[in-house]
Design a protein that fits this description.
alpha/beta; Rossmann fold; nine-stranded mixed sheet
């Protein structure tokens, strides 16, 4: 693992690191914020999965998460959203290819060679960071924005019970198998059989599995992608399942990082309640 940068930040350290990824077959970069509390022993960790076109850097610099995490003694991990490099398949559209991994393991050419973001985020990167940094693997939580909200919700619901204590999302792609942000990408990455898509659709997973811990969803009412995101489908599935969920609509907010930063403190506090509970 190579250190790209380390900066003092709210008493802790905001680092950026690169490593050779076996899962993705290329070098990958991620951000990690370690609070000052890590000097005293392993700290809980909140994974933040970013959305379309983002790298590890977007939330790291725009979400305003470090100050709130430092106050609670929680580490933050900011993975990239896709494999990258000259030898990695790409597409001219912003919502497919590099910057748009959708947190799946692709099975179709030309994507299958590198686009294994599920394996990377669920297995490879956790193994690396828990070995290299003072993080507590028994206290993990997930959050994310847009495509990353989709990734956070699907990872939480498909992972073994207890792996993640809580999950939240900002404006997640909630029903991708029925959305323009989902059908095209799932077809490209996973093939044309919708049965292969079901395990990556938060609404369908909510109907079939749910999540044993608490969930928090925030959605802006002025989000220009509101219909594509389809938050009503997820909320309806959660209500029918009687899922432990806080679902909030915020009048006038859009899809930007101004929206994410406005409610990041709430999300950190929400996860802290779960991560710091005995």
């Amino acid at each position: 693992m190579k250190t790209i940068s380390e900066n003092r930040c709210f008493g802790g350290v905001q680092g950026v690191y690169a490593h050779a990824s076996q899962a993705c077959g290329c070098d990958m970069t991620f951000g990690l914020f370690l609070p000052d509390a890590a000097h005293d022993g392993p700290v809980p960790v909140l994974w933040y999965l970013s959305g379309l076109t983002c790298t590890h850097e977007n939330a790291m610099t725009k979400a305003g998460a470090q100050a709130h995490a430092a106050d609670r003694g929680i580490a933050l991990v900011f993975p990239d959203t896709s494999p990258r490099g000259a030898g990695v398949a790409d597409d001219d559209a912003y919502d497919l290819g590099q910057g748009a991994g959708f947190y799946v393991n692709a099975t179709q050419k030309p994507w299958a060679a590198h686009f294994r973001m599920w394996e990377y985020v669920a297995e490879e990167l956790p193994a690396l960071v828990f070995e290299a940094f003072p993080l507590d693997a028994e206290r993990q939580a997930l959050t994310g924005h847009s495509m990353g909200g989709h990734g956070a919700l699907t990872l939480a619901m498909r992972s073994p019970p207890g792996r993640y204590r809580s999950v939240s999302a900002f404006a997640p792609i909630a029903h991708p198998s029925q959305s323009d942000w989902g059908r095209r990408q799932f077809s490209a990455y996973l093939g044309d059989d919708p049965a292969a898509w079901a395990g990556h659709d938060a609404t369908l997973l909510m109907r079939d599995k749910g999540f044993e811990g608490p969930m928090l969803i925030d959605q802006g009412t002025d989000d220009p992608f509101f219909e594509q995101l389809d938050p009503a489908a997820l909320a309806g599935a959660a209500a029918r399942r009687r899922q432990d969920m806080i679902f909030r609509l915020h009048r006038g907010y859009d899809h930007s990082y101004f929206f994410v930063a406005s409610f990041m403190e709430d999300h950190i506090a929400f996860h802290a309640d779960a991560l710091l509970a005995e």
